[in-house]
Amino acid sequence: MKFRLSLIALFTTLSLFAQNADSLRYAFGRESLESSKGIGTPYADTLDTGNPAVKVLLYSDHTWRFVKDPVMAAKDSVFLENWDTVNINPYREMEGNLPDFITIWVADTLDTYCCPNKTNPSSKFGYRHGRRHQGIDLPYPTKTPVYAAFDGKVRVSRYHKGYGNLIILRHQNGLETFYAHLHESKVNSGDWVSAGDVIGLGGSTGRSSGPHLHFEVRYRGYAIDPAWLIDFPNGQLRHRLLKIRKWYFNPSTRYIQNVDDEDEIFIADEADRVAAEEQAKKEAAAREAAERAAMKYHTVRSGDTLSGIAAKYHTSVNTLCRLNNIKPTTILQIGKKLRVR
User: Fold this and answer.
1) Nearby residues of 232 by Cβ (< 8 Å), 6 or more positions away
2) Nearest Cα residue to 125 out of 200, 218, 220
3) Which of 9, 13, 52, 288 lies 20 to 30 Å from 336, alpha-carbon distance?
4) Distance (Å, whole) CA 310 – CA 325
5) Of 93 and 25, which is predicted with more confidence?
């Protein structure tokens, strides 16, 4: 009986849904969304809605919800244009061609969301040691399951020298999310995944100083601070509707907290914005100069070994290899300079 009543309520809602879809979407555009791992009650059946792109999922506990049909969603043109399963950035679009203001639905009435990891980032977006850091680093123990943040299609699943084991998901709204330094990938290019699906295991592959998840958000190849999208300490999606200004793509532009008016979400005065960017560049240059001043080198002599050099300078063989882009088995050449700090 309960199941029949649920079905009656369901079909009543279906008739209203078609009439009120737009008002529903825009009414909660600025609402936050809690994270869900997507590991729920087994479903009992699916029902058609009259819209081939939308299904109703019936769970065995007599609950239900609307979902996108993955078969239909995967046919969207966004998964055909600039689709490349090898290159990190398949777009060749000049930043000047992007609109000044971009509005993207991240999670509408049919979408779910899963926070990559509810924690304080260990390294933020922006310049780091004089180099661009195009995402954030989240503490992530090795072999811990890594979850897809949103529904999407796997574009890249391969090893990359810098990223290590890398997965790139493209989403129907045009955003791409990156999951890097994985111990292992659980998906292949072309797979469709839902928010909360396990796509890999945390690790420390590639150019990594220890186990963590490097997470990026990009639009048409350009990275933005993921904190514009997700409040990582609380695990919440900040808004279902994401508003992007073109200058968010500047690597010095980080998320600013406690700004209520999204139309004035960054520095309103252009002069102040330019001054802030210049200050960020100066700080990055100062950090790079300090790092270079702290560098120390050793000239290889006859009989030197990596372990002996490491012991002399109170460091490790792994650190020497990382600093000099060599392997523990690399044969040292007499007279070559090795960075030891």
Assistant:
1) 115, 116, 117, 118, 119, 120, 121, 136, 138, 226
2) 218
3) 288
4) 15
5) 93
pTM above the 0.90 mark?
Answer: no
Cβ-Cβ contacts under 8 Å for 68 (sequence gap 6 or more): 53, 54, 55, 110, 111, 151, 172
Closest Cα partner for 181 from 210, 158, 213, 145? 213
Q: Which residue has the higher pLDDT, 72 or 259?
A: 72
Q: What pairs with residue 184 in β-bridges?
A: 201
182, 164 contact by CB (below 8 A):
yes
Which residues touch 49 (CB under 8 Å, ≥6 apart)?
14, 17, 55, 56, 66
CA dihedral 10, 11, 16, 18 (to 10 degrees): 110
Tell me the per-residue pLDDT of 268-279, one tens digit each, with 9 for 90 and over. Answer: 444 555 665 676
Residue 63: Cβ within 10 Å count: 12
Residue 323 to residue 164: CA distance in whole angstroms: 16
